[in-house]
Design goal:
With 296 residues, this protein is of the alpha/beta class. It has a domain at 5-170 and 207-231 and 268-277: 3-Layer(aba) Sandwich (Rossmann fold), CATH 3.40.50.720. It is built from 9 helices and 13 strands. It has helices at 14-23, 75-78, 82-102, 140-157, 181-191, 209-218, 238-249, 271-276, 285-292; strands spanning 5-9, 29-34, 44-47, 65-68, 107-113, 162-168, 171-172, 194-197, 203-204, 207-208, 225-230, 236-237, 254-257. A 7-stranded parallel sheet has the order 3-2-1-4-5-6-11, with helices on both faces. Helix 4 links the parallel strand 5 (107-113) and strand 6 (162-168). The protein is globular and about 60 Å long. It starts with a strand and ends with a helix.
């Protein structure tokens, strides 16, 4: 039996590298697309922009899955750059959809974000069926993801292949830059005698990059149109991260709160992922922080 073909855009990204690392021990044939060239890749690689009108020529006919990670993937990269943001994230994805259709790709997996959810009230939990009011968004990045989700739904309704939209939570992991609050706080606890935050009660469902990669793999072969949150099992507050960092490092530091009442909590549920693709995070906060030590 021939191996299944998987195309990964953004193959040289933080998530892309982790995903490929997990896939390389399997029987998948991996084809990577990225604008950055890797060093001696152990898989077929093409240096190409997702907006290239001839990208379909690099996608094998009847590819089993196209995992679309390539994007301007951080809010600061898109802030006040709406044209660039939508050109890459929206138009680039539409170009890939067209290419996938031409090559009869069987499943299109899109990396979306929990930032598509608008206002959370206190610690309310939101799921994939929660209503989203686009008027509440002022983030170009979030809007680009939301518009692309709508485009994918429309294309699926018009006969496009199986579509899986994965809304990633706030991702952290072993890397040297583009840190979330998790890496940043561990770095501060390790290298400083005091840490200052807004409110210790601010929290997110942080999720380790290795768990995100596993979640993508668990979604392979899912039929129909699906939106699934890949988020942590619980809210970890800034206080949790500081205290666990101190435990991991065996160090005690001073903590200052500048705005204790300015609490921000985002709580997107991962219950659907547990039911639909049999996935849940395996890496707890302490284990995750330990994986960061060589990088902070």
């Amino acid at each position: 039996m021939s191996s299944k073909k998987i195309v990964i855009t953004g193959s040289e990204s933080f998530i892309g590298k982790t995903l490929i690392s997990q896939l390389q021990s399997s029987d998948y044939e991996i084809i990577g697309f990225d604008s950055l060239k890797p060093t001696n890749p152990a898989y077929e690689f093409h240096q190409i922009d997702i907006r290239n009108s001839e990208i379909n020529k690099l996608i094998p006919l009847d590819t089993d899955g196209l995992i679309h990670l390539a994007a301007l993937s951080r809010d600061p990269d898109c802030k006040n750059r709406a044209i660039e943001c939508f050109d890459v994230n929206v138009m680039g994805t539409l170009n890939l959809i067209k290419a996938a259709h031409l090559q009869n790709v069987k499943q299109f997996i899109f990396a979306s974000s929990e930032w598509v959810y608008d206002k959370f009230v206190d610690s309310e939990e939101k799921n994939e069926d929660s209503e989203i009011n686009i008027a509440n968004h002022n983030s170009e990045y979030a809007l680009s993801k939301l518009v692309t989700e709508s485009n994918l739904r429309q294309q699926h309704n018009n006969g496009f292949c199986d579509v899986t939209i994965l809304r990633f939570g706030i991702i952290y992991g072993p890397r040297k830059s583009n840190w979330s609050a998790v890496e940043s706080i561990l770095h501060q606890v390790k290298n400083q005698d005091k840490v200052s935050v807004g409110s210790l009660k601010t929290g997110r469902r942080f999720v380790h990059v290795s768990d995100i990669a596993r979640g993508i793999i668990h979604s392979f072969g899912l039929e129909g149109f699906n939106i699934i949150n890949l988020t942590g099992n619980q809210i970890n507050t800034l206080k949790d991260i500081i205290e666990t960092s101190q435990e991991v490092l065996g160090k005690k530091i001073q903590i200052f709160e500048s705005n204790p009442e300015q609490i921000s909590i985002r709580n997107p549920s991962n219950s659907k992922a547990k039911k639909i693709i049999n996935w849940e995070p395996k890496i707890d906060l302490k284990t995750g922080l330990e994986s960061l030590l060589p990088y902070v």
